[in-house]
Protein: Exopolyphosphatase / guanosine-5'-triphosphate,3'-diphosphate pyrophosphatase
Organism: Algoriphagus halophilus
Amino acid sequence: MKFAAVDIGSNAIRLQITNVTHYEGVYNFKKLEYLRFPLRLGLDVFHTQKISDLNRRKFIKLMKAFKILIDLYEVDDYMACATSAMRESSNGKDIVEEVREDIGLKINIIDGNKEAELINNSLKSLIDEKAYLHIDVGGGSTELNIYHKRVKIASKSFQIGSVRALEDKVLEPVWKSMESFIAKNMEKKSNIISIGTGGNINKIFELTGPRKNRKFLEYSKIKETIHYLESLTFEERVNKLNLNHDRADVIIPAGKIYQRAMNAAQSTKIMVPDLGLKDGIMQILFDKHQKKKPL
């Protein structure tokens, strides 16, 4: 069967199409298509509380392109989820309705808790008896999940994101609230391991060297990498490090969000599994159809 996941974030919008096969008792997931388009909806919303007419038109064109690909691949099921920028926009619901009526693509505007839940679905196999702090940093929000002995004991979404921080739209009380939440729920737990999801922590991980069989990134390495990035101009980050334009400016504020969260948890290392919302959506679609009938 073929599934499609659409992740409508504050800094970029992604489409992934995956083919699932079943052979000798094992399910295999093969990525057929992956597209990331740098449409920064959050820049509009965090300043004016609405998506501009220009970005509205671009967004609708992009959804048409995604719908064409979904149809061409003859996808069996799909799920499209919009996060922080769309849910905070005063005209977000109108845009979603326009896409549904004109294109036939259904978009779900999800809250922070649902976003965290979907991302968690992709992390199940990574959690064991230890204490974990899962940090997912998006353009507009950061979702935190705390696990102990395989049980999620706390979860919360904060209006702290890479684009929001870049535009200096995060108030200090919100930072303090996040740190207090972590400290309270991680109290009396030792050897806390962080799990980082999101494009920026993956890029920071990549900048520290080949991924190979590495799973973890030391806190000191994150600090060192951010310091190096700050020593470069925007143009140098784009041309010397080959970063996308929409990554080169947000990677530093994003990295500092991971740092502050890890500091609050007294966590010295972070696991970077290259998973995210789209992977959680895929898991939801897979589970849904497995309940109906074997693939």
User: Anything to note?
Assistant: The radius of gyration is 19 Å.
